[in-house]
C-alpha cells in the first residue's frame, strides 16, 4: 500500500510540476554537488527524466532494497542493479540523501521555510529520504523509533504541501 502511494506521488509530481520562479539556487542537498565518484556526469545526479524513469524508480523500490550495517543502500535484484539508472540510484541513496537524524531534521527545516515549489530533483531526493526514514523507523525501537517516525511524518507533510502547490499551479506551467 505504501509503495503504491509513493508511486502515485512520484507520478503525480512528474506530471504536474512547475519550476519555481525564485530561490532556484536553494541547496537542499549540497552533497549532490560534490558526489565522491569520478565522472563529471554524476555531478548533481537525477533519476527522473521521463515517465519510464519514474516507473524504474518504483521498480527499484518494489524489487526491495538492502541496507547494510554501515547504511549502504543497494538494489537486491541483480539484473536491476546492473543498469545505469541503478548506478544513479546508488549514488543518490549513498552519496546524496541525508542518513542521520540531525541532517534529516535540518533538511525538513530548510524545506519548511522554502516559499516555492521544489525542483524535480529536490522532490525526488526528499522522497528517497522519506523512504529511508521509513526503513529506519521500522528498524528502531523506543524513543529512536518515535524520532524517526516524526521525521518521516514531517517529510510526508512537506511533500504533500509541495504537491498541493503543484496541482494549484499546474494549468499555467509545466515543471522542467
In short:
The protein has 176 residues and is mainly alpha-helical. It is 59% helix and 3% strand.
Mean pLDDT: 78
Major β-sheet profile:
2 strands, antiparallel
Our Rg estimate from Cα atoms comes to 16 Å
- Spans of 5+ residues with little confidence (pLDDT < 50)? 15-26
Kindly state the number of beta strands.
Answer: 2
End-to-end CA span: 29 Å
Work out the strand percent. under 5%
* Total helical segments: 7
Shape: globular
- What is the structural class? mainly alpha
Order of helices and strands: HHEEHHHHH
Helix content: 55-70%
Widest sheet: strand ordering: 1-2
Plain-language structure description:
Helices cover 59% and strands 3% of the residues. The protein has 176 residues and is mainly alpha-helical. A two-stranded antiparallel sheet has the order 1-2. Strand 1 (65-67) and strand 2 form a beta hairpin. Helix 1 runs antiparallel to helix 2 (51-62), helix 1 (2-16) packs parallel to helix 7 (142-169) and helix 5 (101-112) packs parallel to helix 7 (142-169). The protein is globular. Mean pLDDT is 78; it is low at 15-26. Keywords: Signal. This is Protein FAM180A. It holds the Pfam family FAM180.
